[in-house]
Design goal:
The protein is of the alpha/beta class and about 675 residues long. The chain is built from 29 helices and 22 strands. α11 runs parallel beside α12, α13 runs parallel beside α14 and α26 runs antiparallel to α29.
């Protein structure tokens, strides 16, 4: 598990420096790795004790380790710590001593079963964990019963159990547990709870629940009525009931009950509550504390939207999401003049039927002056000139207008509007903007605060020279996304310059063609920044690009390499996998390329992939030839080989297992598979 010299005074000095830098997940990984890369010593014990004291000031969610699949979903640009590095045999065995520093543990989609949950519950190493994510496993009721009986979860505040096959019995056990008295946030989305389990959770004398997520639990009108008929007031603040089968009738009953009168957040998205349900909600005397309301795809139509606008009780509402509700411009006038709007900081009307007149009504409203986020995506707006020039929109920090048929005139209006001076996030994906519109960003404009700009899926290659050769007039810009904009080599070479890359934290140009000059600049910048991951998916890369990467030694130290959906052939893979620079790779994606058997053989024979954890090739794992090439590799890690080995015929397994003839003859299939995976 450990390597290198013993942890000593030099490492203690490094630890002090790490502990006094920014509190991030990536920084926490560096702290853990400092311990992991050295042998245990007295100084290591001192260092761990010292770190414990200083880390008390950190948020628990930043003191986290993730599963490999959860790592793939990570989006903040930092490589997070992997649970398997610090606790290889989790949930059995002993973790590294530095694991005691961890507070948030993710075992997301690790194929954990009931027995694994029971082992986890029995582990004393869970005593310091406050946030546990077990989403997309299958621990079932018995696994949750083991948690409920464990004395090691006393400090647990957050428990995520999305899609774990849990029903009423597991929920009841949890509710009756005397050990979970710190649990405030519980996620049981996509399970099978009925009214008995929900009632037990909400009336528990032990659980101080503040947030409960019950999306996709097949909760019906019958369940709601049975529950509300026996439920008294609860202390719940956040409740998610999205993606169930709650109709206007049971919502009316819900709104008459005082059971949830303390709620500040409510999500009823994807339930057929209809206009009558929205009206019942708007008129309920028990929603006066609501600050956040989500009614996405709730079928409320114009009638329901008008009812919400006229509400006298939703006076505290700050965030309102009415996405995909068939709302038209007819109801926008009522919404725009509703005092309900005066507190709103977030409004989404995405996916409705609002035209440019509707945006003009919003622009004229004196009640929209607090709006910080406005999402009008996928409405037939056409242009947004009046909207963005309205002084009533001057508080906007985020404007999302995806798929609104906007043309260059709209981007020019945004860039030149003094009302947009506070804008930090602008999303204009999938419109009709061309390079002519980009010209407004290449000259002095009002977007000095803009941090994130997304112009993906616009045809931006219609002007040469390319307008964004310099970003000097967007001084705060850190993230620029120009994915699938049909940019040719001349455009990308003009855009991807050392100067632009120095100013940007993230540049996304998937789905365009990279010129050699721009590609080199991109690789050099990643190297200079010490990047440990490269995502080059959808970049029209060829074997020549691979040769350039290898010959320039740009892959040294990379842990993650995404090369999917390009034009890489066998020769490119032969070049790539003969390079010792890939020795640190842990994640590799080559799906959607043009390689064949020779490329697979290059992967199987490479001596540099011993650290690989995740490999995606987009090949037929049932094809006998593919299975034999990868499965019988003597260099790839067992976890990579396993799905291929499991498809090999028993006789072939028997031939290749390195045991004497007598032993091989009497081994069953499972034993043969394990033996072959152990062989080098």
């Amino acid at each position: 598990m450990t390597q290198g010299a013993p942890f000593g005074q030099e490492q203690l000095t490094q630890l002090r420096e790490l502990l006094h830098k920014t509190y991030t997940r990536g920084q926490f990984k560096k702290i853990l790795d400092l311990f992991l890369s050295h042998q245990p010593s007295v100084e290591m014990e001192t260092g761990i004790h010292y770190a414990l004291g200083h880390l008390e000031n950190w948020f628990d969610e930043r003191r986290c380790t993730l599963s490999p699949v959860h790592w793939q979903l990570w989006m903040d640009g930092e490589s997070p710590a992997l649970t398997s590095d610090y606790w290889p045999d989790c949930p059995t065995g002993e973790p590294h001593p530095c694991f005691i520093l961890v507070r948030s543990l993710s075992l997301f989609q690790e194929n954990l079963q009931t027995a694994d949950a029971e082992q986890l519950a029995a582990s004393p190493h869970m005593a310091h964990i406050t946030k546990l994510n077990l989403d997309f496993n299958d621990i079932g009721d018995k696994g949750l019963q083991a948690f409920a009986a464990s004395p090691h979860f006393r400090n647990l505040t957050h428990l995520d159990l999305h899609e774990n096959g849990i029903g009423d019995e597991g929920a009841i056990a949890l509710a009756n547990s005397p050990h979970l008295t710190s649990l405030t946030h519980l996620n049981l989305d996509q399970n099978q709870l009925g009214w008995r389990g929900i009632k037990a959770l909400l009336t528990s004398e032990h659980l101080p629940l503040v947030e409960l997520r019950l999306s996709e639990n097949n909760i019906s009108d019958k369940t709601m009525r049975a529950l509300l008929g026996v439920l008294g007031p609860t202390s719940l603040r956040h409740l998610s009931l999205s993606d169930n089968d709650i109709s206007e009738d049971s919502l009316t009953y819900f709104c008459k009950s005082a059971a949830f009168s303390q709620l500040t957040q409510l999500d009823l998205s994807s339930n057929p509550i209809g206009p009558k349900g929205a009206k019942a909600l708007a008129q309920s005397p028990h929603v006066s504390h609501l600050e956040e309301l989500h009614l996405v795809e709730a079928e409320i139509d114009d009638e329901g939207a008008k009812a919400l606008a006229e509400s006298k009780t939703l006076v505290q509402l700050k965030r309102l999401d009415l996405t995909n509700n068939h709302i038209t411009t007819k109801s926008i006038e009522a919404l725009a003049h509703a005092t309900l709007f005066s507190q709103l900081t977030y409004l989404s009307l995405s996916g409705n039927r609002i035209d440019v007149t509707g945006t003009q009504l919003l622009a004229q409203s004196p009640h929209t002056t607090s709006l910080e986020t406005l999402n009008l995506s996928h409405n037939p707006i056409g242009h947004c000139v009046e909207l963005v020039h309205s002084p009533n929109m001057s508080a906007l920090r985020q404007l999302v207008l995806v798929g609104c048929s906007l043309e260059d005139e709209s981007l020019k209006a945004i860039a030149t509007s003094s009302a947009m001076r506070q804008l930090k996030d602008l999303d204009l994906r999938d419109n009709k903007i061309t390079a002519e519109g980009l010209l407004s960003l290449s000259k002095p404009n009002e977007l000095h605060a803009l941090v994130f700009l997304d112009l993906s899926e616009n045809a931006l290659n219609t002007h040469h020279p390319f307008p964004l050769q310099t970003l000097q007039h967007l001084p705060s810009l850190k993230r620029l996304s120009l994915q699938f904009c049909a940019l040719d080599e001349e455009c990308t070479d003009a855009l991807i310059t050392p100067e632009n890359l120095r100013n940007l934290r993230e540049l996304m140009v998937y789905g365009n063609t990279l010129g050699e000059k721009g590609f080199k600049a991109l690789l050099q910048h990643a190297q200079q920044q010490g990047a440990t991951g490269l995502d080059l998916s959808y970049h029209n890369l060829t074997d020549e690009h691979i040769t350039l990467m290898v010959e320039g030694h740009y892959l040294s130290g990379m842990r993650s390499l995404m090369l999917d959906e390009n034009f890489i052939s066998d020769q490119g893979l032969i070049t790539l996998f003969s390079s010792p620079d890939i020795a640190d790779l842990e994640e590799l994606n080559l799906g959607g390329n043009a390689f064949g058997e020779e490329g697979l053989q290059a992967i199987a024979a490479s001596p540099y992939l011993t650290k690989l954890r995740i490999m995606y090739l987009d090949i037929d794992e049932y094809d006998p030839g593919n299975c034999e090439i990868i499965g019988l590799s003597t260099t790839l890690p067992p976890a990579i080989r396993r799905p291929f080995v499991e498809q090999l015929p028993t006789e072939l397994l028997r031939q290749h297992v390195q045991r004497n003839f007598f032993l091989r003859t009497f081994m069953d299939r499972e034993t043969l598979i394990e033996a072959l995976l152990e062989d080098k």
